[in-house]
TrEMBL record, chain A:
HAMAP family membership: CcmE
Name under which the protein is recorded: Cytochrome c-type biogenesis protein CcmE
Extracellular side: 29-150
Signal peptide stretch: 1-24
Chief localization: membrane
Keyword set includes Lipoprotein: no
Automatic annotation (TrEMBL), chain B:
Function recorded in the entry: Required for the export of heme to the periplasm for the biogenesis of c-type cytochromes.
Family listed: Belongs to the CcmC/CycZ/HelC family.
Protein name in the entry: Heme exporter protein C
Subcellular location, record wording: Cell inner membrane; Membrane
NCBIfam families for this protein: ccmC
Keyword Transport: yes
Occurrences of domain Cytochrome c assembly protein (ranges): 34-186
Record field: transmembrane: 59-80, 92-111, 123-142, 163-182, 202-223
């Protein structure tokens, strides 16, 4: 075997070992690398009140109710495997709306309501002109239900 | 490949190719950006802020693709010790870092009006930032180990730099998969092998800017490779003159 063939084999073995170990490390990281927890995760693991977490999911249609002060809102978030009521006082991003994704930072109160400190909007991977919106929402591909809960 | 590994032959091809790639790429990117700003409809949800994708997406692809090219050049350097491979790796690093930085900057600008935040430590953003730092590390390492173990003479890179370039490649698939493996604020992939979830009316200028920025990237790499070769030639001549 010539020297450069030896180097080639060695380099390829090293690349394979590196990729394998990186893959193992990433799969071991698992949910701990997740940016937020979905309602189904919360239902499964049972998060104690007062612990700071990020909660992510779809804002249920028709669930947003605004308080008398104009800045307090209540809504529920779900991901198909669970549903969590959320309370928030403050200004939400423009893209925060019913039927769309969101991520809230905050903690559960003792009453089981998630009290959010900040709210971020999460949009899905679809981009389209305004006219097509109605076609898609009425069609089989209901928007947003597929992406957030993954 | 072997024919191109000869620097003299490479220069003969690279010289006329550089302006073609650079000007052609810049022209295509300009047309694509103009079309993206004026000729496409706004997004149903995000409005006009969606238009930044014509820069953000090619920048992200080139930031990641640049490192793949760099890693292949490093592998070639380690295995075949072609004189041009190390020069190519070094030439890719700077535009790669620029495009990775452009991706982070445009992403941040895009994130503020849509998500409501400039920056969050989710999987996609964190792994892209790591790529940016890897580029910085590669450039620093290549410079710091100049003139070591022979390979760096003539503008190439040292062996440790080449190994660093190869190891850093593990981050690229992590960036790509970060939105699939983990819950993230960044949305999932829009363009996959199964098709695109971007409406065709919005999508088409992206093809122009993606191709344009890619050609521009290639043009910059050729430019830098020629500059590195010229610099090495000057240095060799100076050394001869000093010795005489």
């Amino acid at each position: 075997m010539k020297a450069k063939h030896q180097r080639l084999v060695l380099a390829l073995v090293a690349v394979g070992a590196m990729s394998g170990s990186a893959l193992l490390a990433m799969s071991a990281l698992g949910d701990r690398a997740a940016y937020f927890q979905a309602p189904s995760d919360v239902a499964r693991t049972g998060i104690e009140p007062g612990r700071a977490i990020r909660l992510g999911g779809m804002v249920d249609r028709g669930s947003i109710s605004r308080g008398g002060d104009g800045v307090s809102i209540r809504f529920t978030v779900s991901d198909g495997g669970g549903r969590v009521p959320v309370r928030f006082t403050g200004i939400t991003p423009d893209l925060f709306r019913e039927g769309s994704g969101m991520v809230a930072e905050g903690r559960f109160g003792s009453d089981g309501v998630f009290v959010a400190d900040t709210i971020l909007a999460k949009h899905d991977e679809r981009y389209m002109p305004p006219g097509m919106n109605t076609d898609v929402t009425s069609g089989s591909a209901s928007p947003g239900t597929t992406t957030v809960a993954r | 490949m072997h024919a191109l590994a000869n620097p003299a032959r490479f220069l003969k091809i690279a010289r006329p190719l550089t302006p073609i790639l650079t000007l052609g790429g810049a022209g295509l990117a300009t047309v694509g950006a103009w079309a993206g700003l004026t000729q496409t409809p706004a997004d149903y949800l995000q409005g006009d802020s969606v238009r930044i994708l014509y820069v953000h997406v090619p920048a992200a692809w080139l930031g990641m693709g640049g490192w793949m090219g760099l890693a292949i050049a490093c592998l070639t350097q380690i295995v075949w010790r072609h004189p041009l491979a190390g020069i190519a790796a070094r030439a890719i690093a700077v535009p790669g870092m620029v495009f990775a930085g452009l991706c982070l900057a445009t992403g941040s600008i895009w994130g503020r009006p849509t998500w409501g935040t400039w920056w969050e430590w989710d999987g996609r953003m964190t792994s892209m930032l790591v790529l940016f730092f890897l580029y910085a590390g590669f450039i620093a390492l290549a410079r710091a180990s100049d003139g070591q173990d022979g390979a760096a003479e003539g503008g190439g890179i040292s062996r440790v730099t080449a190994i660093f370039g190869l190891v850093g490649a593990v981050n690229v698939p992590i960036i790509n998969r970060s939105v699939v493996w983990w819950n993230s604020l960044h949305q999932g992939p829009s363009i996959t092998l199964r098709g695109s979830s971007i409406a065709p009316e919005i999508l088409w200028p992206l093809a122009l800017t993606a191709l344009g920025f890619t050609l521009l990237f290639a043009g910059i790499v050729l430019m830098r490779m020629r500059a590195i070769l010229a610099g090495a030639k000057v240095e060799a001549r100076m050394r001869r003159m000093a010795a005489a």
